[in-house]
Structure formats: C-alpha cells, structure tokens
Predict the 3D structure of the following.
Amino acid sequence: MSHHLWLSRLAFVFVSSISFVSVVNMIVDPYGVFHFVAKPHFNIVKRHVASDRMTKLYYLARIKPRALLLGSSTIGSFESTDLERYAPAPAYNLALGGMHIREIHAYLTHAASRYPVKTVVIGLDFFGFFGHDANHELDARFVPERLRRRIYVEDYLVALFPFDTFVRAFKTIHDNRGDQRGFQYVDYETGTFLWNRANTVGPPRHSIDEYRMKQLCEIYSTHWSSRVVENVRYVKKMLEFAESHQIDLRLFASPSHLTSFALIARMGLGTLYARWHRALAEVTAYYDFGGANSITNDAGNFIDTLHLKPEGGRLIFARLFDDRSIPVPADFGVPITQATVDNHLAALQFDHRPARRFECSSIRSPS
C-alpha cells in the first residue's frame, strides 16, 4: 500500500468518525443546543449537560417566555405553571444552582431584552450575595459573552464535536429508556428542578447544612463578605430595568428550614444578615418568607434544608399576588418596608453577635 493511499484512508476514517460523532451529538442533543429531535424515551431527560447556565439559555430562546422565575436552586422546585395562574403564559423557571445576584441581573436583562417578558418573580437569597468561592465572585460556568452575543459559537462547537459529548449522548439515551423515578435532574422544558424525594430525609438534610457551612468557611474571611451589602445595588438595577421595560417585578427573600437558617448565627453572620435586609428595604418593598414560621418550622415542607417543595412555591405565589382563594399561613410571607424592617429583624429572634471563635476546621466534608 502506497504512503499516499494509507494517508487517504486514514483521513477518510478520521473524517467519517468525526461526522458520525457530530451527527449523533446533534440528534441526541445532550446539552439542549440544537433541539432537532425532542422525544420521550429518547432525549427529553437531560442529566448530563455541560452547564445549566448554558442549557437553560437555549431552552429560553425556544420558549420565548412572557413570565420568568429567577433565583438560585432554592426556587428551582417551583412549577412555572403555578406562576401562570397570575402571569401570562408561557412561564419559565430560570433558576440556576448557586445563582449570584449579578447573574440574576444579567439573565433578567438578557431575557427581557430578547423575549416578551412581562412578569418576573425573583427569589433573593442572602448567600446569593456572597462570592462563589475564595477566588471568584461568580460561578465559573457563568459566561457573560454567552448572553451578549446573538450566536455563541463556542457552545455549538462543544455540543457538536467532542467525544465527551458523544459519551454523554449515549448516557442521555440510557437515562430516557430506563426507570427515571430515582433521578434528580432539571426538566429543561419547564426549567423546574425535579428532586429524588426518596433521599430527602435524614442524613441528606444534615449533609446539605455541612456543605453550606464548609462553603461559607472558605469565603468568610475574604473580601466577598464585605460586598454582600454592596451587591444590593444589582437589585436596584433590576428594579430600574423592570420599570423602563414595563415589567411587573415581584421580589421575596427565600425561606429555608430553621436548621439551615440557624447557620447564619452559627457563622457569626447575624449582623451582616440584618444589614442585608435593611439595604434591601432601602431599595424596595418585598416579602420575607424566612425565619421561624408555620412553614419553615416543619421539615416536611422541604425537600432538604434549603429547598422548599413545589407546594410551598404555590403558597409564595399566592402571597405575592394577593390570592385569597389559596389559604396561606398568616405568618408565612411578611411584607417588609423601610419602616417595618427593624421590627421584623427583632422578631426573628436569633443572635446577631459575631461568633469570633467559630472553628471552620471542625466542619467535615459532606458524604
């Protein structure tokens, strides 16, 4: 065999392999970029995306929502159809894991500048105003250029050619053809987080708190904690943007189970937490669903210590939109203004003093 013939055959095999991989990646679409085929028992369930920040953006472009849910995973379980009771359809849950307030601002301006968004509900988390880690304020998976460009070529290259994507494509097919009852994943068609409720009691609750404390320990002594109150300016920017675009914007402070809420005091962050609430109240009125109340006192209302069940989301929507037809506990959802915030903070009844001798080294890694 001549040298040139050998090279030609090698090139043919290489090109054929790349073409085959690309076609499979495009059809199965494990990252949700192309959406040429979307079929149950084939590729609807996508548990192997490269980034939720990437995938949700492409679903957003297809759905073109008129109503949005924005925030971290603490509102991820809320059903977008429940929001459609009070807002124009279609609604989309654009919650992202660990979403920082700067990201919320960026995704809001992106979505409302391109799609007919008229109503937005935003869950504000105290920890969403901290940095992501000791070195970065935002999650490394957040790519601002993806929101600025009409076509972000890098996503198409990652979704089309790599062999890793090819492997994830087959994992996606396997997931869709098997029993999905034990899965925990994001339903990207609606944006809703679907949790495996079989693992939502006992040790997993404790593990979530341990993880949260470990994460906070890593950034507690950095300059990020000093930026928490400063980052409230992004809330003001969102309010100004919503007003200029005639968007009905509803804000609330997210609830967590009391064991998780108690971490604020254990970490010595009580004073900062109070400053954060006062800074929010200076900017706008909002509802606070945190602290001790009929819902947060009962672990049965939560998937784990951080994440409320979908039923809780319905109660939050009813309170935000003053729906008297749905019975909401009177103490769940306190309206906060600049005039009432101090009384509210006093009623929370937890220790605001700094925990100067808190030992971060005592925190174990979650199992």
